[in-house]
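in:
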């Protein structure tokens, strides 16, 4: 009687479940991801040898275009939501709830308050025409729209931070705004001076200037 040899086969692994999980995760990230808002103004910063690093979160950025127009970009949705609600009620901007939500999700902004409703309702090239920068009044600080935006933005972030702390959150999880000035390398100095004067007039004497990294000539060849 011949000897029966059983047929042998290599082990197999069913990958169906793992593929299902992978596609579910991919679908989740696609549906929940938010595209970065298009920048209102492009700023080509000057270079320097400074090695100081800016904080990654909690920044209130002031952008100055090469034409001297000023734009503001406060970080954080909760603070932006409180900011636009306060500005809308205080200065009678006439913004609807939908328009306020657009503000929360947009990037940097810059337009006179009287045109802000049109700015939020516009899109593409039309929005670019309205975004002519935030007006600055260096004679009367109380009439400076830039000063009002900066003051209310810092106050909104401060109040949000206090709410997080009172709710039992870590004090370091939300920080007060770090003021950042980002000017184009071709921006005329008087425009930058107006912004700096506005900051000092509202007692903001500590701020950061953004530059691109440049090699330090004193360090070239120092390390062998």
């Amino acid at each position: 009687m011949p000897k029966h040899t059983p047929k042998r086969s290599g082990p197999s692994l069913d990958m169906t479940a793992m593929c299902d999980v992978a596609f579910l995760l991919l679908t989740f990230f696609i549906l929940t991801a938010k595209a970065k808002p298009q920048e209102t103004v492009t700023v080509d910063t000057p270079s320097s040898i400074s090695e100081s690093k800016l904080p990654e979160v909690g920044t209130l950025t002031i952008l100055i275009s090469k034409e001297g127009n000023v734009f503001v970009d406060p970080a954080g949705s909760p603070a932006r939501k409180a900011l636009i609600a306060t500005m809308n009620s205080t200065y009678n901007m006439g913004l609807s709830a939908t328009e306020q939500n657009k503000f929360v999700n947009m990037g940097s902004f810059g337009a006179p308050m009287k045109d802000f409703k049109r700015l939020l309702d516009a899109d593409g090239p039309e929005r670019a025409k309205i975004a002519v920068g935030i007006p600055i009044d260096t004679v009367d600080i109380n009439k400076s729209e830039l000063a009002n935006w900066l003051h209310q933005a810092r106050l909104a972030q401060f109040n949000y931070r206090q709410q997080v702390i009172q709710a039992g959150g870590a004090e370091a999880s939300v920080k007060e705004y770090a003021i950042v000035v980002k000017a184009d390398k071709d921006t005329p100095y008087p425009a930058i001076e107006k912004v700096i004067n506005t900051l000092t007039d509202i007692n903001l004497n500590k701020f950061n200037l953004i530059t691109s990294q440049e090699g330090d000539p004193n360090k070239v060849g120092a390390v062998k």
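note: The beta strands are 47-48, 59-64, 70-74, 178-183, 208-209, 212-213.
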